[in-house]
Design goal:
The protein is α/β, with parallel strands linked by helices and 376 residues long. The chain folds into two domains: 271 residues, TIM Barrel (Alpha-Beta Barrel), CATH 3.20.20.105; 85 residues, no CATH class. It has an eight-stranded parallel β-barrel, surrounded by four helices. Strands 1-2-3 form a three-stranded antiparallel β-sheet. Strand 12, helix 9 and strand 13 form a beta-alpha-beta unit. The chain is globular. It starts with a strand and ends with a helix. Pfam families: TGT. One of its GO terms (cellular component) is cytosol.
């Protein structure tokens, strides 16, 4: 259940009550594709850096170790030792990324495993069954994510199919939640808005899925080829047609600037591999923008990554030391930078929530954009 606490312009401050705890929104979900954050970060670390929600991947966990194995191990929460909310995506985006080895039909999608090439079928029912086996808190509906731009005629047909798939997801998850051996009988379903970069298709689809009275909604199919300006235009078009009293999730986005802009337009949930991926390559976020610790100017720099930051890396180590670790190819370098970047994102969301509650989000956003100077 979602409770809207405060609005500052269109920005929403809310609480989302789930079977695995209450999520304070806006929130950034830390991406653990294979039930682990890349960069040697544990679930114990996630708690220390303020992570509220962990996100795992249906497609990848289905392939390895297998969702049935995870079910036998008591579900994903027990398997990875995480007692807070988990969102699992449906596998739809991974199918999109396998464009050269997939075949889309009304019943679902045939594609080949990226691991061993074996043929796999996934449709709405299969996606729900896998996510039910995982026992995640929030399951995403199975959809088709199209590249931007795509021909209008194709996008229209794709969105109609995605709507039919959503109806099937809802029926199947209701069935699964009623079974005696289901791990999480209160699993929540989020529907996904699609429509490429066509405002009218997006709006009609938003109106259609809003009538299904789901517990949450997502805007999908963005950050896949369109400009930031196009993305913001689509968010502006779609948000008014989705329920304000339900959480809204912008999938796969994004940079700190993207997050501020989307919060300003009414978005509650975010996820992105960017902070962990950047951290593994020595690119770290600071209050004055992103820096590359491999640059020679940090060789004798005794300062922490970001002065005033309370993450484990900044409290104990210097830029010079972390740079040395990267040069020496020590795994600790990646770990410290991933911890820092995830702390930065989680703390950013905490500050955003405080700014909305304090009715100064607009000033906060302006200040941050000036500080980052476009470098975030």
């Amino acid at each position: 259940m979602y409770k809207l606490i405060k609005m500052c312009g269109k920005a929403k401050r809310g609480e989302f009550v789930t079977p695995h705890g209450t999520i304070q929104t806006p929130v950034f979900m830390n991406v653990g594709t294979l039930a682990a954050i890349k960069g040697a970060v544990s679930t114990m670390d996630l708690k220390k850096i303020g992570c509220q929600v962990e996100l795992s991947n249906t497609y990848h966990l289905h392939l390895r170790p297998g969702d049935k194995i995870i079910k036998k191990m008591g579900g994903l929460h027990k398997f990875m030792n995480w007692d807070r909310p988990i969102l699992t995506d449906s596998g739809g985006f991974q199918v999109f990324s396998l464009a050269n080895i997939r075949k889309i039909q009304e019943k679902g999608v045939y594609f080949n495993s990226h691991i061993d090439g074996r043929k796999i079928f996934m449709g709405p029912e299969e996606s729900m069954q896998i996510q039910s086996n995982l026992g995640s808190t929030i399951a995403m509906a199975f959809d088709e994510c199209v590249a931007n731009p795509s021909p209008r005629e194709y996008v229209e047909r794709s969105v109609e199919r995605t709507t039919r798939w959503l109806e099937r997801c809802k029926i199947e998850l209701d069935r699964l939640n009623s079974l005696p051996d289901t791990i999480n009988k209160k699993q929540i379903l989020f529907g996904i808005n699609q429509g490429g970069v066509y405002d009218d298709i997006r709006i009609e689809h938003a109106k259609t899925i809003a009538k299904m009275n789901l517990e949450g909604y997502a805007i999908g199919g963005l950050a896949v080829g369109e400009s930031h300006e196009e993305m913001y235009r689509i968010i502006d078009a779609v948000v008014p047609h989705l329920p304000k009293d339900k959480p809204l999730y912008l999938m796969g986005v994004g940079t700190p600037i993207n997050i501020l802009e989307a919060v300003d337009r009414g978005v509650d949930f975010f996820d992105c591999v960017l902070p962990a991926r950047n951290g593994r390559h020595a690119h770290v976020f600071t209050k004055y923008g992103k820096i590359n610790l491999l640059n020679a100017k940090y060789e004798l720099d005794e300062k922490p990554i970001d002065e005033g930051c309370q993450c484990p890396a900044c409290r104990h180590y210097s830029r010079a030391y972390i740079r040395h670790l990267f040069k020496a190819k020590e795994m600790l370098a990646m770990r410290l930078c991933v911890l820092h970047n995830l702390y930065f994102y989680n703390n950013l969301m905490k500050e955003i929530r405080e700014a909305i509650e304090g009715d100064y989000f607009s000033q906060y956003k302006t200040q941050k954009l000036e500080q980052w100077g476009g470098k975030a």
